[in-house]
Amino acid sequence: MIGEKTTEPLWWGLFSAGGVIAAFLVPIHILIAGFAVPLGWISDTGILYRNWSVRIYLFILISLPLYHWAHRFYFAVNDMHLGVPRKPLALLCYGGAVIGTLITAWVLLRL
Amino acid sequence: MSGTRPDKSKLYYQKVSATWWLKKPSYLLFMLRELSSVFIALFLVIYLIQLSQLIDGPQAYVSFAQKLSSPGWILFHLVVLAFALYHSFTWFKSTAVILPIRIGERLLPREMIIALNIGAWVLVSLVILFLFLALKG
Amino acid sequence: MAEPTVTLNVTRYRPEQDRAPTNQRYTIPYKNDWVVLDALNHIKDQMDGTLSYRWSCRMGVCGSCGMMVNGVPKLTCAAFLRDYYPQEIRVEPLVNFPIIRDLVIDMSDFLDKLKSVKPWIIRKEEKPVSQGEYRQTPAELEAYKQFTQCINCMLCYAACPVYGLEPEFLGPAAIALGYRYNLDSRDQGRDQRQGVLMSHDAIWQCTFVGECSVVCPKDVDPAAAIQRTKVDTTKEWFQSVLLPWGQK
Hints:
By secondary structure, chain A is an all-alpha fold.
């Protein structure tokens, strides 16, 4: 409805931040964690990730792009006109990102 | 004269096909760009699972990483990498459109902004790689 | 010597007799310097006076003659036959709009949305004529000039898949024109427009497909205008939430 108040800017802001993080940081991490370490090009015991600064970095790296996914995926499914009802889809996407954020924090705290 | 609005009862409403995005190359590329976010999210989930192995100690972390060397996982990461790179480049292109940079009187050309973004991305990636190699222990 | 010909495959819709649109083929003389509009005028003048379509200036400034040519939104006064000849040329009314008759679409939705962004200079207080004109530096003009070029031809609405799917979406031209006035140094009406621009569905349905800017015949780049409006609106929203004092 035109004229209705909206929290859309919040989600768009998170989407943008997530998009920036994903654009600049994700490719190198795919190379490291998806190829270099598994294939033995680089050895990694993982203890680096127990460092607090590194945990904060990892929290940002993993959680923000989840909001990027949530926003883009919600609109893509709507644009594909699959007839998926809006409110449940929004809950799944944005709720999923929030839950993902909490799980990420929980995991990183326990490392 | 009945005025300027047409008789609504006789209007023909053109329908939009649900597969509109398959009908034009530019629309398909758009949808692939949107779906790249799915693969990025998938990677991050796998990455988090990989990191979480450390809860059970470095041994568990290392043996999980070895599981990721199987052909299936390598293929997964190749697909993920392709979509992540597609996201990066389309993101830099979008940034050039959305955030114009003015130097004095002139606008920086969009190609230049994209090139600067790519340069920054390469730099950041090398810094991350270097820090990882130096600090991983 | 046989004259070269070209065939136009044109949508017909006569509400008094048709349930749904059909099409009709017209074979006309091919002239190297004709545009699709010339072809339509030839058909109407020489072959079938019942064909209905809009046109006016025939030089790309009035925005009247927008139609789909081979599935692409174009000004028919700017679509040269020679770019399609000798293939058959499909001419259809702009998509995403209801059809009134033949190639004529109902633009009321666009006009309502355009009006809703108040595309005119809004002053808190009008300057009396005796105080002289509003002054603007070349740099101030540069800031919004590109977005003044819109001729309201609605090609961008036909190109936008979101407008086709979401009836509430404001659409490229309306948002670009709202943005144009917000950027104009003479304007003081930003607050009045924000209510419309900031609201749900108004700009947020846009997913930056970018096709609007691709088809725009005047290089307005509405896609850029919309994304920049999103940035401005988001900044303002975060400011109003995180720093509520200093807001009215």
